[in-house]
């Protein structure tokens, strides 16, 4: 089955590296016009150039997604640049690791509230296009998360929010789904860092994955593209774990 997004307008919050970059590249390769945002300008511009090389119309913006006004500005500017919105992907994470004010604040501000604000701002365009929203949660939101309590709790909130949004928006033709990745490794990412600096943790997690390896960003992107595509036209309110069986390890 072929997935095409020719001419569709796709916004990816947190789209410059890792999973977000792979999602953006996947949509561009499928013919979409793509808007991405991120805090780091250098990687943002590099990814934007990669997207243009695939023939995509691209809008990139440096944006701190913890800043509510900046989220609204980015969505509105991206919609204006692309001529509307067909798909919104909320991928960014503050990755609150520690059970303290800073950890909780990072996860709430970026993982949760940026998602809420981007969705709310994009909704008028999504209703017109009968579009789709895909949130990126984590398997940490599906089980206890002792090492990263804020991260796990807020990712669980995203799963619940997915169901609530889907129920509220179904009559308007807007579908909302969620992907819960397992441990995904890419250069400069959390598990790449752990492999170098905390090999005991890396090996312990790796041994718990029945597939015998960490995931790749493009494997998460493939699930996102499916959920946003016409092939999933009757799928809404769902969370799909993409984890190589890690939940069962």
Q: Your description of this structure?
A:
With 249 residues, the chain is α/β, with parallel strands linked by helices. It has one domain: Rossmann fold. It is built from eight helices and seven strands; from the N terminus they run E-H-E-H-E-H-E-H-E-H-E-H-H-H-E. Strands 3-2-1-4-5-6-7 form a seven-stranded parallel beta sheet, with helices on both faces. Helix 2 (41-53) links the parallel strand 2 and strand 3. Helix 1 runs parallel beside helix 2, helix 3 (68-82) packs parallel to helix 4 (101-129) and helix 6 packs across helix 7. The two termini are 31 Å apart. The relative contact order is 0.14.
User: H/E element string?
Assistant: EHEHEHEHEHEHHHE
Mean pLDDT: 97
Enumerate how many helices there are, as a single number: 8
Q: What is the CATH topology classification name?
A: Rossmann fold
**Oligomeric form of this entry?**
single chain
Shape category: globular
Q: How helical, in percent, are the residues? A: 40-55%
Number of strands: 7
**What fraction of residues sit in β-strands?**
5-15%
Looking at the overall shape, the CATH architecture is 3-Layer(aba) Sandwich
Could you name the CATH class?
A: Alpha Beta
The total tally of domains equals: 1
Low-confidence stretches: none
Tell me briefly what this model is.
Pfam families: adh_short_C2 (PF13561). Helix content is 48%, strand content 14%.
């Amino acid at each position: 089955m072929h997935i095409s997004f020719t001419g569709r307008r796709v916004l990816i919050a947190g789209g410059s590296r890792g999973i977000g970059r792979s999602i953006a590249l996947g949509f561009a390769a499928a013919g979409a016009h793509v808007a991405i945002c991120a805090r780091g300008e250098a990687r943002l511009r590099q990814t934007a150039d990669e997207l243009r090389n695939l023939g995509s119309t691209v809008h990139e913006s440096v944006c701190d997604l913890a800043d509510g006004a900046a989220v609204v500005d980015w969505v509105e500017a991206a919609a204006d640049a692309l001529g509307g919105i067909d798909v919104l992907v909320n991928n960014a994470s503050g990755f609150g690791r520690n059970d303290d004010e800073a950890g909780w604040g990072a996860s709430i501000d970026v993982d949760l509230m940026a998602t809420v604000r981007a969705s709310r701002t994009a909704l008028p365009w999504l209703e017109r296009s009968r579009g789709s929203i895909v949130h990126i949660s984590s398997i940490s939101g599906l089980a206890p998360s002792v090492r990263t309590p804020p991260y796990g709790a807020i990712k669980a909130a995203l799963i619940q929010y997915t169901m609530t949004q889907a129920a509220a928006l179904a009559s308007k033709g807007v579908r909302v789904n969620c992907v819960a990745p397992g441990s995904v490794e890419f250069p400069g990412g959390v598990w790449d860092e752990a492999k170098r600096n905390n090999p005991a943790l890396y090996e312990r997690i790796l041994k718990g994955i029945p597939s015998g390896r960490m995931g790749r960003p493009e494997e998460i992107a493939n699930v996102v593209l499916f959920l946003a595509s016409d092939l999933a036209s009757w799928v809404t309110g769902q969370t799909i774990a993409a984890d190589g069986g890690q939940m069962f390890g």
